[in-house]
TrEMBL record, chain B:
UniProt protein name: C-type cytochrome
Region (Disordered): 148-171
Domain Cytochrome c: 43-127, 177-286
Lineage: Bacteria, Pseudomonadati, Pseudomonadota, Gammaproteobacteria, Oceanospirillales
InterPro entries: Cyt_c-like_dom, Cyt_c-like_dom_sf, Cytochrome_c550/c551-like
SUPFAM superfamilies: Cytochrome c
Membrane-traversing stretches: 6-26
Organism: Alcanivorax quisquiliarum
Alphabetic keyword roster: Electron transport, Heme, Iron, Membrane, Metal-binding, Transmembrane, Transmembrane helix, Transport
Record flagged with keyword GTP-binding: no
Residue ranges, compositional bias (Low complexity): 155-169
From TrEMBL, chain C:
Keywords recorded for this protein, A-Z: Membrane, Transmembrane, Transmembrane helix
PANTHER family: CYTOCHROME C OXIDASE SUBUNIT 1, NITRIC OXIDE REDUCTASE SUBUNIT B
InterPro entries given in the database record: Cyt_c_oxase-like_su1_sf, Cyt_C_Oxase_1
Entry keyword Membrane: yes
Name of the protein described by the UniProt record: Cbb3-type cytochrome c oxidase subunit I
Record field: transmembrane: 9-31, 51-73, 85-108, 120-141, 153-172, 184-207, 219-242, 248-273, 285-311, 331-351, 363-386, 406-429
Keyword presence, Membrane: yes
Top-level taxonomy: Bacteria, Pseudomonadati, Pseudomonadota, Gammaproteobacteria, Oceanospirillales
Length: 41, 286, 456
């Protein structure tokens, strides 16, 4: 089995996931900013 | 302790715990039909349960306190809201709550009428399961007990009764003022008045706030828009308790198709005396 | 890596870490929804993000367990795996099942039964995977004829996980009965057999990392397993509060779940004792961090925070609030995420080419950022939960009104969640930085090393 060839694809997948994580963090902070005045105690 | 003793301990405690656990499981099965009113699990209730699962309700709401924590607990919801209300709510949650004001909203689920009816039947079955008296005080969707005058009396201990509306309920006896007795009815009647009505001005829940009810009623009776039979404030309040649909209050949130969402069961569940007391209390809300 | 077939673990770890990253994406999305009107209301509503968040957790942790087992068993039994082909088939089936489940949830294809939302076909695939796994591990051990206590505990844990999955396959007419058996799977996994698996990994790591005496370590492993089951089996009762079961489950749940921290304290003392006695001389200091960190965080999250709301007279106020989320996040992370990351950290220098044995500095950043982030998240849930309990349950304020008052804690949750996500991202980046190796880097020693010499 040529498993070595699989390293590259899964590494790319890992970068996609890292990008998604970054996107969700940015989204969360954007929403925090947008809703900032609506957050009260 | 040597290795052998440690092994005996591991196996011994595991087997002992498992045997006790299985024994209790058997005994629980003996008691399930009774505790859960299994005879009431009709095909409609079962279908309602499947609807509950199909629409993934448990990943926002809780039932018996189990689920996700993004939406209200629904264990006793049928004791807080009438069937008519729940049906109308399920047809369009967006008309009952405002995403800007409540900061979150239940998405429209597009259930069929049959699914809605059976889901509410399932929730009613859940509400009647003997679940060890939980919650100790009603868990409300909106409003609350604290939003209003006349919480518990000064220096008097508040008895905590399980599964009753006990927060801020002043203990009363028959010799008390009729209005005090009426407030007690207001806070203890089932379904709970306070689950929908607050006493704070402007704090509308699933029902309108009752603050200023007397002034509003007087204005209504004088306006000529009134559709019911009553001629004075007391009569209007009595009619509103016993026959909620006699005159429909403003707003699509409170009624549909000429029927109020307020439970129409108080005429039977409350005694004549209690209704009188309740009216007396409500007439104090100038 | 002493045995060529151990390299299958690399792919299991790779899949586990990718899914771990995805889990955080959905966690962050869920947290954001607490802040205000949600632009994703009809694209990814809360129920969808939440179900994916919890399901990915289960799938990635189990993937990690499987990978770690495929790494550990050749080492312990001193033989190649029975079949690497089966191991790959299992991984493909398993990953396919997980991905299909997540995609299904996006389209609301699920059973809506909390934590067991997987549709029946998916559950059957899971059963097939379990069976392949048990067969493969069993044949490996049988072939070698060498069966250590650590392995025994691990295999028993895996077999019991499969057996306890059985109630999840059945349909129950009565909602209360369905809750009753749902916890057989979920609770007895999490607080029973997974603890056993965790204990086995811990023993393995401690024996290797600290060079502690195998006979002593395995003796205490037995004691821990005994404590886990003594408290864990009857501790299931704490999930039977308020769901319509007989009243006697309340005191039983209170008493036995109060005992549950004993096993966890035992584990922490066990790890600490091993390190003290034998020193921290192993070059893989990063794996040591994760191993000790796991026992300490488990003590905090599962032990202390679990104990905080397990007594019935407290739980009746905190049940079904964010207090549960507080405990859940810290407990799962400490016990299962961290032990899996410990196994990965231990194995990865020899699974990859050119990685320094003591760990990279990115690896340490990943450790501390995750730890700090998760601690902060736990505190955020705790403050929000305490507020919720007092306002909603005790003062009687309506749910929606009380939620408005605790919103600010979700800002803190998102900040801490971001710190945590940064730590996880670094771990993932670090893992994939070095290419895998498929050759043996040290000769298969036949009972030669000191730590391996004594077998019970």
């Amino acid at each position: 089995m040529e498993r070595k060839k699989l390293y590259k694809p899964i590494r790319i997948v890992s970068f996609i996931v890292l990008a998604l994580m970054l996107a969700s963090v940015l989204f969360a902070f954007t929403m925090t900013g947008l809703h900032w005045t609506g957050i009260n105690v | 302790m040597n290795n052998r003793q440690a092994r005996i301990f591991a196996w011994g405690s595991t087997i002992a715990a498992a045997v006790i656990f299985l024994g209790l499981t058997l005994d629980s099965h003996r008691q399930f039909p009774n505790l859960t009113n299994a005879e009431n699990i009709t095909p409609e209730v079962t279908h309602g349960k499947d609807v509950w699962h199909k629409y993934n309700c448990i990943n926002c709401h809780t039932l018996f306190g189990e689920g996700a924590y993004y939406a209200p607990d629904l264990t006793k919801i049928t004791q807080h809201r009438s069937e008519a209300y729940l049906h109308a709510y399920m047809r369009d949650p967006g008309s009952f709550y405002d995403e800007q004001r409540h900061r979150r909203l239940m998405p429209q689920q597009n259930l069929s009428e049959e699914e809605i009816v059976n889901l509410v039947k399932f929730l009613d079955w859940v509400a009647n399961v003997d679940n060890q008296g939980w919650p100790p005080r009603p868990i409300l969707v909106t409003g609350g007990f604290t939003a209003g005058p006349g919480s518990s009396g000064a220096g008097q201990p508040v008895p905590v009764q399980s599964s009753s509306t006990s927060v801020g309920v002043r203990p009363v006896d028959a010799g008390d003022d009729i209005r005090a007795l009426g407030e007690n009815v207001f806070r203890t009647a089932m379904p709970t008045c306070v689950a929908c009505h607050s006493l704070a001005p402007g704090a509308d829940g699933a029902g309108p706030s009752l603050a200023g009810i007397v002034r509003r009623t007087e204005a209504l009776l004088a306006s000529g828009n009134y559709q019911g039979q009553a001629s004075d404030v007391e009569g209007y309040l009595r009619e509103a308790i016993v026959d909620p649909s006699a005159h429909l209050n403003t707003g699509g949130m409170y009624s549909a198709n000429g029927v109020s969402f307020m439970p129409d069961t108080y005429g039977e569940s409350l005694s004549e005396e209690e209704i009188e007391q309740l009216v007396a209390f409500l007439t104090t809300l100038k | 890596m002493r045995y060529k077939s151990q390299s299958v673990a690399y792919w299991y770890f790779a899949v586990a870490l990718v899914l771990f990253g995805l889990q955080l994406v959905f966690g962050l999305l869920s947290a954001t929804k607490y802040l205000g009107p949600d632009p994703l209301l009809y694209i990814l509503p809360f129920d969808v993000t939440k179900v994916i968040h919890t399901n990915l957790l289960i799938v990635w942790v189990l993937t990690g367990f499987m990978g770690a087992t495929y790494w550990l068993v050749p080492d312990e039994s001193r033989t190649e795996l029975h079949s690497t082909k089966l191991a790959y088939v299992q991984l493909i089936l398993w990953t396919g099942m997980g991905v299909a489940a997540v995609i299904g949830y996006l389209f609301r294809y699920g059973t809506g039964n909390k934590l067991l939302e997987q549709p029946l076909p998916h559950k059957l695939v899971m059963v097939v995977c379990f069976l392949i796994f048990i067969y493969n591990i069993g044949m490996t051990i049988k072939k070698s004829g060498r069966f250590t206590t650590t392995e025994g505990v691990l295999v028993l844990g895996i077999v019991s996980s499969a057996v306890l999955f059985f109630p999840a396959l059945l349909y129950y007419e009565n909602y209360t009965v369905s809750i009753f058996y749902r916890w057989w799977t979920i609770h007895l996994w999490v607080e029973g057999v997974w603890m056993m698996i965790m204990g086995a990994f811990l023993a393995y790591l401690l024996i290797r990392l600290s060079g502690a005496d195998r006979e002593v370590m395995e003796k205490w492993l037995y004691v821990i397993v005994g404590l886990v089951f003594l408290a864990g089996i009857l501790g299931t009762a704490h999930h039977y509060y308020w769901v319509g079961v007989p009243h006697y489950w309340l005191p039983i749940g209170g008493f036995f779940s109060a005992l549950e921290p004993l096993a966890i304290v035992g584990m922490a003392i066990y790890a600490y004792g091993a390190m003290r006695r034998s020193g921290m001389s192993h070059p893989n200091v990063l794996a040591l961090h994760w191993t000790l960190g796991s026992t300490i965080f488990t003590l905090f999250g599962a032990g202390l925070l679990g104990l905080a709301h397990t007594w019935p007279s407290i739980n009746k106020w905190t049940h079904g609030t964010l207090i549960t989320a507080m405990h859940g996040h810290a407990a799962f992370y400490g016990a299962y995420a961290m032990i899996t990351l410990a196994m990965i950290s231990y194995a990865q220098p020899s699974l990859t080419q050119g990685r320094p044995e003591k760990g990279t500095s990115i690896g340490y950043w990943a450790f501390w950022l995750q730890l700090g982030g998760m601690f902060g998240m736990t505190i955020s849930f705790a403050t929000a939960g305490i507020g919720q309990v007092y306002l909603e349950r005790i003062m009687g304020m309506g749910y929606l009104d009380a939620q408005l008052k605790i919103q600010i804690h979700f800002v803190m949750l998102i900040i801490c969640g971001t710190i945590f996500a940064t730590g996880v991202a670094l771990f993932i980046y670090d893992f994939f930085r070095y290419r895998p190796r498929f050759d043996v880097d040290e000769p298969a020693a036949e009972g030669s090393t000191a730590s391996d010499a004594r077998v019970s």
